[in-house]
Specification:
Rossmann fold, SGNH_hydro, 10% helix, globular, phosphatidylcholine lysophospholipase activity, SGNH_hydro_sf, seven-stranded mixed sheet, 908 residues, Tachylectin-2, Chain A, single chain, SGNH hydrolase-type esterase domain-containing protein, five-stranded antiparallel sheet
Length: 908
C-alpha cells in the first residue's frame, strides 16, 4: 500500500509536471508542490535534490465544492474514535488540494467543525434515497455514497438492490444538477456469512450501474473497495476502524481524482434552501445544528429520594360486623383529597351495596344512612376503587376471574348523607390470557390522573397499557411495555400501586405478610421510547427515615395480616404546597368475639414522609428576560421563586464551557406561594422582554402580571398589575400531568404581544388575541381538536415568520410535528389557518431523542426561530440543544493550518 504523502523522488514528479498541460494544474495551497494524482514510482529516484528549484506553474481556478456524504452508519462515522469517519479525512484532502469545501446535509455528526452529513444509522438504500431528498436544496456538486450494507444484512431484495441505487442516482441528477459528480463505493465486507454471500453479486450490480451510467456520459465514478478493505479493517464486523476509514478515504479520493482529471468538477448551482435571506423556512427533522456540548448541567433543586416517617394516631374507628370477608375499601367518593371508608355488603335481595363512612377530615368519620350502589355485584376479591377518567374522584372497577375489567363511573353528585351515583359502563379492558385476576393491577403509572392496566409476570415484572384519551372509558390503549422489574419479593400477592408521596404518580409497594412495606417511587423520565416500549419511568427505592435499606413501613404485626393493610388519605396531608395528599398507613385490626361477631379497629399511622416529588427538571422555563432576542433560562421553585441564568450569547460551546452567564438567585420572589405550573413567562406588553403572568386556578385562570422593567444597567424591576385584563378567563382545570395545563400564552396573531389561549382537554383552543396597542379580541376558536392530549401541545415560532405555530410533541419519541400558523382566516370552524400536509396531519419538524415531556422550543440563538432544547434526565437536569436554522449548515476548517491528511491510497 502507498501513503499519499510518501514519494520516492521529487525529481520524477518534476518530470511528470513538465509534461503536463498547465490547465490541469490545481495548485492553490502553498503545500501543493505537485498534484497528488501524479505519483512517482519507486524506481524514479534520480539522486539528491537539495537546492533544486521547481518552476512556478500557472494555476487554474478551482470550483468551490459543496460535498454531500450520503449513506448510513458507515458514512456517519460509526466505528471511528472521533465520529468523523472518512469525512474529515476527505475534506482535509480536498482543502489541502486547494478546494474551498462545504460539507452539506441535514444531519450533524462527529467532532469536525463542518460536520454536516446526510446519513442515518440503520437505513437501507430506499430510506437513504428518501433522506437524500432533504438535501437537494443544498445543490451539492459532489456526492459521495456508501449505501447498501443494511440491505444485504436484512436480505432485502438483493437482486433489485442495484436498480434501487440507480433510481437514487438518477433522482440526484434530476433534482440537483446533471453536472453533480457522484462517487459510489462498493459495499464493505461484513462479518455475517449470509450477508457476505450476497455482497459479491450486489457489488457486481453496482459496478454495472456505474459503468453503464458513465458510458451514457454521466459524471459518475466507482470507489471499488473489494480486495482493498478486509474484515481486519473493521471495528465490529461492519464499521471501519480509524485505520479502515483512512483506507476508505483513500479510495474515495482516488475516484475523485479521476473526475478531476476529466474536468468533471463544476461550480455548484445556487442553493435554494432559503428564499428570504435565511430568515424563514420550514423545519425538517434532523436538520438542526447541535450547540456542541451540554447546554444545561444540572441546575435547580429537588427533594431527594423518599424517606418515610409516620405518626401513630391510634384507633380512629371501631366497627362490629357479622362478617370478615375482606370487605373494607377506601375510596375518594365525595372529594379528591380524602378517602372514605366503604364496607362491602350483600343485601337480602342478593345485591351488593357499600356502607359508607364519610371522611370529615381530622381523622373523623361519619356513617351515612344511604348505602352506595355501584350497580355491580362484584365479589370483594375483584373490587378496585380508582380514578378511571381523571376527574379526581374514584370510580369502580371489577376485575373478573379471567382478568377482564368492568367499570362504573362516579358521577360526582354526592354530598352530605347522599352518596354519589355510579353509572355502569361495561367492559373497560378485555381479558388477557397472560393476566388472570391475581396478576392484574390498576394504577396510574404515567401520572395523567387515569388508571392504567398493569399485568404482572411470575417474576414480578410489570407490563403496562396506558388508558388513552379523555372520556370515561378508554378510547384506545397504548402499550408501554415492561415498566417495572420485579424485585424478587417471593410472591405477587403483596404487589400494590399507591401514590404514597402525593406527586400524582402511583408508586410500587410490596406488602409483606406481617404488614411490612417496601417502596419504589415513580417519577417522570426523559428516556426516549416508542409505543410498546415507552413512557419510561424513573424508579427509585425509598426507605425509612435515616435508613439506606429495608422497608419504608416496618409492620411487625402477627403473620397473615397482609390483606388488612391499606394505604389511604385518612388525613391526606400534602408534603408541601402544590402536591396531593400523602397516603397514610391503615391496619384494620381484627378480633373475633365469643359471640361470633367480628370487631375491626381502624388503626392509622399518619404519613410524615418526604421526598421524590420534585425532580429538578420540573422547574425549567425559557424566555427572553432582557430583550436581547435570545431566550434566557429561568429555574422556578415549586412555590414560584425564580433563579435567572442569562443567555451567554454563545452559539457553540465545547467541553465544560457554560452556555449561560452567572446565575442571579431569586431574581423574582412572589409575596405568596404560587404553583409554578400556573406561572408563565411571556411578553405581555410587547417591549421585547418577557413578563411574568400568573393564572389563578381558583378563579377561572384570570391573570395577574408582574411587568418586567429590566434595564441593562439597573437590573430587574417588577411592576405588579393585579387585574390588567378582566375579560380574560378560562374555566378549564389543570390536570395531574406536569404539562397538562389549561392556559398557554403565545403570539398567534403576530402582534408582538402574547395572546391568551384556553385549551380544553380535547385540545380545542379558544381565547383572546392582543393587538399591538394592548386591546383584546375574543376568538371563539383558534384551533379545533385534533385528538392530541393537551399535555403534548406547545406553541413557538418554528418558521420565523413572526407568528407562533402549534407544535404537537409525540410523547414516546419526542418527535415534534408542526401546524404552521398561516394567519387570520376563517377556515374549518377556526379563526386561524393552520397548514397541514397534503396527505393530512401536521408537518414533521423535530426529531426527538428524549421523551416528549422533556422537549422545549426556546429561541436560544436569537434568530426568531424555535430551537430544540432537550432535557436528558429529570433528576440530573442536563440538556442538549439543536439550533433551528434555515440552511442547517455548518462550515469552516478545524484549523487555519491546513495539513495533508494521512490517507492510505489503494494501488493505482
Amino acid at each position: 500500500m502507498k501513503l499519499i504523502h510518501s514519494f520516492s523522488s521529487l525529481w520524477g514528479i518534476f518530470l511528470h509536471l513538465l509534461l503536463l498541460d498547465t490547465t490541469t494544474l490545481v495548485y492553490s495551497h502553498p503545500h501543493d508542490v505537485f498534484h497528488h494524482r501524479h505519483q512517482a514510482k519507486a524506481n524514479d529516484s534520480l539522486g539528491d535534490l537539495d537546492g533544486l528549484e521547481l518552476p512556478v506553474l500557472e494555476k487554474r481556478a478551482l470550483p468551490d465544492l459543496r460535498v454531500m456524504a450520503l449513506g448510513a452508519s458507515i458514512v456517519f462515522g460509526v466505528g471511528s474514535t472521533d465520529g468523523n469517519g472518512f469525512r474529515k479525512l476527505l475534506r482535509d484532502q480536498l482543502r489541502f488540494s486547494g478546494y474551498k469545501v462545504d460539507m452539506v446535509g441535514t444531519k450533524n455528526g462527529g467532532s469536525m467543525k463542518d460536520n454536516d452529513v446526510e446519513a442515518t444509522s440503520g437505513f437501507i438504500v430506499k430510506q437513504i434515497h428518501d433522506a437524500s431528498k432533504l438535501s437537494y436544496k443544498y445543490k451539492p456538486n459532489l456526492v459521495v455514497i456508501n449505501a447498501g450494507t443494511n440491505d444485504i444484512v436484512g436480505n432485502i431484495d438483493p437482486a433489485g438492490q442495484p436498480q434501487r441505487l440507480k433510481s437514487m442516482l438518477l433522482d440526484l441528477w434530476s433534482n440537483i444538477s446533471p453536472d453533480t459528480v457522484i462517487i459510489v463505493s462498493t459495499i464493505l465486507p461484513v462479518d455475517k456469512p449470509a450477508a457476505e454471500a450476497l455482497r459479491g453479486g450486489v457489488n457486481n450490480g453496482y459496478r454495472n450501474v456505474v459503468s453503464d451510467l458513465y458510458k451514457e456520459g454521466k459524471p459518475i465514478y466507482l470507489a471499488d473497495l473489494d480486495g482493498w478493505m478486509t474484515l481486519s479493517d473493521l471495528d465490529d464486523g461492519t464499521h471501519p476502524t480509524d485505520y479502515g476509514f483512512r483506507k476508505m478515504a483513500g479510495a474515495l479520493w482516488s475516484a475523485i481524482q479521476k473526475a478531476e482529471k476529466e474536468n468533471k468538477l463544476k461550480d455548484p448551482l445556487p442553493a435554494d434552501f432559503s428564499n428570504d435571506n435565511g430568515k424563514t423556512c420550514r423545519k425538517s427533522p434532523g436538520d438542526g445544528i447541535n450547540a456542541g456540548a451540554l447546554t444545561q448541567k444540572g441546575s435547580g433543586y429537588d427533594d431527594g429520594t423518599y424517606e418515610h416517617d409516620s405518626q401513630e394516631m391510634g384507633a380512629l374507628l371501631t366497627i362490629t360486623s357479622d362478617w370478615d370477608r375482606d370487605q373494607w375499601f377506601f375510596a375518594r367518593i365525595f372529594r379528591s383529597d380524602r378517602d372514605d371508608l366503604l364496607g362491602w355488603v350483600e343485601n337480602s335481595a342478593g345485591n351488593v351495596v357499600y356502607a359508607v363512612r364519610r371522611n370529615d377530615g381530622g381523622g373523623k368519620f361519619t356513617k351515612i344512612a344511604t348505602d352506595l350502589n355501584v350497580n355491580d355485584n362484584c365479589k370483594p376479591k375483584g373490587v378496585v376503587f380508582i380514578d378511571l377518567n381523571g376527574d379526581g374522584l374514584d370510580d369502580f372497577a371489577c376485575i373478573g376471574p379471567d382478568g377482564a375489567v368492568y367499570a362504573s363511573i362516579n358521577q360526582g353528585n354526592g354530598g352530605g348523607d347522599k352518596p354519589p351515583s355510579f353509572v355502569y359502563k361495561g367492559l373497560w379492558r378485555a381479558a388477557d390470557s397472560r393476566f388472570p385476576q391475581a396478576k392484574v393491577r390498576l394504577a396510574d403509572i404515567d401520572g395523567d390522573g387515569r388508571a392504567d392496566f398493569c399485568g404482572l409476570s411470575d417474576n414480578g415484572d410489570v407490563y403496562v397499557w396506558r388508558n388513552g384519551w379523555i372520556n370515561d372509558m378508554p378510547e384506545y390503549w397504548q402499550a408501554l411495555g415492561k415498566r417495572f422489574e420485579g424485585k424478587g419479593m417471593g410472591n405477587l400477592e403483596g404487589t400494590r400501586f399507591e401514590d404514597l408521596n402525593g406527586d400524582g404518580r402511583d408508586d410500587w409497594i410490596w406488602v409483606g405478610d406481617k404488614g411490612e412495606a417496601h417502596t419504589w417511587t415513580n417519577s417522570r423520565s426523559c428516556g426516549v421510547g416508542k409505543e410498546g416500549n415507552g413512557l419510561k419511568v424513573a424508579w427509585r427505592p425509598g426507605y425509612y427515615k435515616g435508613k439506606t435499606s429495608g422497608p419504608t413501613h416496618a409492620g411487625g404485626f402477627a403473620s397473615g395480616i397482609r390483606n388488612r393493610i391499606h394505604f389511604a388519605r385518612i388525613y391526606g396531608e400534602p408534603q408541601d404546597f402544590g402536591l396531593l395528599g400523602r397516603l397514610d398507613y391503615v391496619y384494620m385490626e381484627h378480633t373475633k368475639g365469643s359471640n361470633g361477631k367480628h370487631t375491626f379497629r381502624m388503626r392509622v399511622w399518619k404519613n410524615k414522609g418526604y421526598g421524590a416529588t420534585k425532580p429538578k427538571a420540573d422547574g425549567n422555563k425559557y424566555c427572553d428576560m432582557t430583550g436581547n432576542g435570545r431566550d434566557d433560562y429561568v429555574w422556578v421553585l415549586s412555590k414560584g421563586e425564580m433563579d435567572f441564568y442569562p443567555n451567554g450569547g454563545k452559539n457553540f460551546i465545547t467541553g465544560s464551557e457554560s452556555y449561560w452567564g452567572p446565575m442571579q438567585k431569586a431574581f423574582f420572589k412572589p409575596d405568596r406561594d404560587l404553583d409554578r405550573r400556573d406561572l408563565h413567562l411571556t411578553d405581555w406588553d410587547g417591549d421585547g422582554k418577557c413578563d411574568i403572568v400568573w393564572v389563578d386556578p381558583n378563579n377561572q385562570n384570570r391573570v395577574s402580571v408582574w411587568r418586567n422593567n429590566y434595564t441593562p444597567g439597573g437590573g430587574f424591576n417588577w411592576q405588579y398589575l393585579a387585574n390588567p385584563a378582566p375579560e380574560l378567563y378560562c374555566p378549564e382545570k389543570r390536570g395531574i400531568g406536569f404539562h397538562d395545563i389549561p392556559v398557554q400564552f403565545a403570539d398567534v396573531s403576530g402582534s408582538g404581544r402574547s395572546d391568551y389561549l384556553c385549551i380544553e382537554k380535547n385540545g380545542r383552543i379558544w381565547g383572546w388575541t392582543q393587538d399591538a396597542k394592548g386591546a383584546w379580541t375574543y376568538i371563539d376558536q383558534f384551533f379545533s381538536s385534533k385528538k392530541h392530549d393537551r399535555a403534548n401541545m406547545r406553541f413557538a415560532d418554528v418558521d420565523g415568520d413572526g407568528r407562533d405555530d402549534a407544535i404537537w410533541v409525540e410523547k414516546f419519541s419526542g418527535d415534534a410535528f408542526v401546524y404552521y400558523n398561516m394567519g387570520r382566516r376563517d377556515i374549518a370552524g377556526s379563526r386561524y389557518w393552520w397548514e397541514i400536509q397534503e396527505r393530512g396531519g401536521p408537518f414533521p419538524a423535530y426529531g426527538g431523542s428524549y421523551a416528549g415531556s422533556c422537549q422545549y422550543f426556546p429561541d436560544l440563538n436569537g434568530d426568531g426561530r424555535a430551537d430544540l432544547h432537550s432535557i436528558q434526565g429529570t433528576f440530573p437536569n442536563t440538556a442538549v440543544s439543536a439550533y433551528n436554522v434555515c440552511d442547517g449548515n455548518r462550515s469552516g476548517d478545524d484549523s487555519t493550518d491546513i495539513k495533508q491528511p494521512d490517507l492510505i491510497m489503494p494501488p493505482s
